[in-house]
Structure formats: C-alpha cells, structure tokens
Specification:
Layout (H helix, E strand, L loop, with lengths): L6 E3 L14 E4 L7 E7 L2 E10 L2 E10 L1
Antiparallel strand pairs: 1-5, 2-3, 3-4, 4-5
C-alpha cells in the first residue's frame, strides 16, 4: 500500500531514533507537519511528512528528498 493514506492513532506512533539503516519516525521540520518517516536507501533519501488530525496521524502526500 505504501505511505499514501496511512494513518496511526495518536499515542501509538512511537518516535524512534533512526535505525543504523537510517529509517525511523522523527519530528518534521516542515511547517504544519508533526512527524516524518525517514526512508533512506538506493534511489534517494525520502522523507514522508505527516500531521495529526483529530488524534490520527495522516501522511497526506508531502515528500521531501535530500
């Protein structure tokens, strides 16, 4: 299914340090976004940004690459 449209209930999403592989759920620096899911690997380093809406974490499609 990928990240589009995925949700998590507030309080169940854990903030973790990125793994040695560079993946994890960390705070987002983008305005109006709460968390970002770091997915690092071949083909680029992508961050999928999410925000809590009514206590549910929504990944609404904002992706940044570094």
């Amino acid at each position: 299914m990928g990240f589009w449209g995925q949700t998590a209930i507030a309080g169940t999403a854990r903030l973790t340090s990125p793994s040695p592989m560079g993946n994890g759920l960390v705070p987002s620096q983008e305005e109006d976004y709460d968390l970002k899911s770091k997915v690092l690997g071949k083909g680029g380093n992508r961050r999928f940004h999410g925000k809590f809406i009514d206590g549910v974490l929504h990944f609404t499609g904002l992706v940044t690459e570094h």
